[in-house]
């Protein structure tokens, strides 16, 4: 006869409670981006979009793995690589196993190196790096590693799309390139020079310069140089306060040609440009909000605006990041074994609510998706940005941009 002692019953109950607690434990993601300083608006907007996506796509539908909630918490890195490494260690010590970051490729480079080293030394507390906006091509080339996944198109893929449009505009003969002085700004400059030379060798690069990131208070001197050079078009990778400052200075100093950008929408930028940006501002980006592609997309945007009246769904890749992470966790059957989750992400295909197929290229962890050239306008806008009446509409599309783009990634897998 089986005899169960009081100790045995207590132990069994303890194990049962422990298993239940583990099942219900939150899946925690640390959002390490600027929440103070000159880029605070950009970071705060991104955090709200991640938190909303987690609730809308996961938690309101019953959670993951039988009821576990996905929680995204903010860690302020002040756009500093050094501070980011501090916040990374804080997050790891507090049990976060998913690290989210996007603003500044300089930060992303520091994080991906630190995470690779940490994961080799600490197999019991490994983390995955979900990069939603840092687009330095090196991150999925020479600096690639298994732990890093990029959900935005890299700078070269985006520049390929932009330069196709520029090359097709026979009114453009002189181009000025300007950007922030760090890895991403340098990557934009290099790609623009190489691709314009290949596609339109007759185009003259009349300026190519970098400025300190987040430190220029008045872009008037830069704008005057651009207009004095007779530029027909401007290419810039500027984002946040630097994009806003440059754009306003260009318009104020009489520049009327197209400005081809990566991140010139939302976070106050659209409202600041207003009528002056119409016919001027173009950006290359993923996702289509105008016109909405489906009732599901419209309902998502309406619900977001109901919660954040002053907010914008201006980074649809955030929704894609959460959707793919959730799908990978379910496929892996675990959220705690990040190796299994990473392997589930590799090669994953998923339909975005924004009307495109998503494919996580396994050889370098670069997401492949449709890329659009978007135009700043107040015509045909269902969903505006910054409550300004202005938004972005699709001008042209490249389907699954960069699918066959080369990579130098040589990935070691755990």
Automatic annotation (TrEMBL):
Residues 1-24 form the signal peptide. Keywords: Amino-acid transport, Signal, Transport. Pfam families: Peripla_BP_6. This is Branched-chain amino acid ABC transporter substrate-binding protein. Belongs to the leucine-binding protein family. It comes from Seohaeicola zhoushanensis. GO terms for biological process: amino acid transport. It comes from the Bacteria. Residues 27-377 form the Leucine-binding protein domain.
């Amino acid at each position: 006869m089986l005899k169960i002692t009081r100790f045995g019953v207590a132990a069994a109950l303890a194990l049962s409670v422990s298993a239940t607690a583990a099942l219900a434990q939150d899946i925690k993601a640390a959002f390490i981006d600027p929440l103070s300083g000159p880029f605070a608006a950009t970071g705060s907007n991104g955090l709200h979009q991640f938190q909303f996506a987690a609730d809308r796509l996961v938690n309101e539908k019953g959670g993951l793995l039988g009821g576990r909630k996905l929680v995204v918490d903010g860690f302020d890195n002040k756009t500093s690589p050094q501070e980011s490494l501090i916040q990374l260690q804080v997050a790891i010590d507090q049990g976060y196993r998913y690290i989210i970051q996007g603003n500044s490729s300089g930060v992303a480079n520091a994080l991906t190196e630190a995470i690779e080293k940490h994961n080799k030394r600490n197999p019991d507390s490994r983390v995955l790096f979900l990069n939603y906006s840092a687009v330095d091509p090196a991150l999925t080339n020479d600096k690639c590693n298994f732990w890093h996944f990029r959900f935005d198109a890299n700078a070269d893929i985006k520049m390929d799309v932009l330069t196709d449009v520029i090359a097709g505009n026979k009114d453009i003969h002189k181009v000025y390139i300007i950007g922030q002085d760090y890895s991403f700004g340098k990557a934009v400059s290099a790609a623009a020079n190489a691709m314009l030379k290949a596609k339109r060798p007759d185009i003259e690069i009349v300026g190519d310069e970098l400025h300190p990131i987040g430190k220029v208070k008045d872009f008037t001197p830069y704008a005057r140089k651009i207009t004095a050079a007779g530029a027909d078009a401007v290419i810039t990778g500027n984002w946040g306060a630097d994009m806003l400052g440059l754009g306003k200075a260009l318009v104020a100093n009489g520049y009327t040609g197209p400005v081809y950008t990566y991140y010139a929408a939302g976070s106050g930028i659209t409202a600041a440009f207003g009528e002056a940006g119409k016919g001027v501002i173009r950006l290359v980006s993923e996702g289509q909000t105008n016109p909405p592609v489906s009732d599901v997309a419209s309902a998502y945007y309406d619900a977001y605006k109901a919660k954040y009246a002053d907010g914008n769904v201006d980074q649809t890749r955030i929704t894609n990041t959460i959707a793919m992470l959730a799908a990978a966790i379910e496929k892996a059957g675990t959220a705690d074994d990040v190796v299994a989750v990473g392997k589930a992400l590799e090669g994953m295909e998923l339909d975005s609510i924004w009307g495109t197929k998503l494919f996580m290229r396994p050889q370098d962890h670069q997401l492949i998706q449709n890329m659009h050239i978007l135009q700043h306008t107040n015509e045909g806008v269902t969903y505006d940005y910054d409550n300004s009446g202005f938004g972005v509409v699709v001008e042209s599309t490249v389907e699954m941009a960069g699918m066959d783009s080369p990579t130098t990634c040589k990935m070691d897998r755990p």
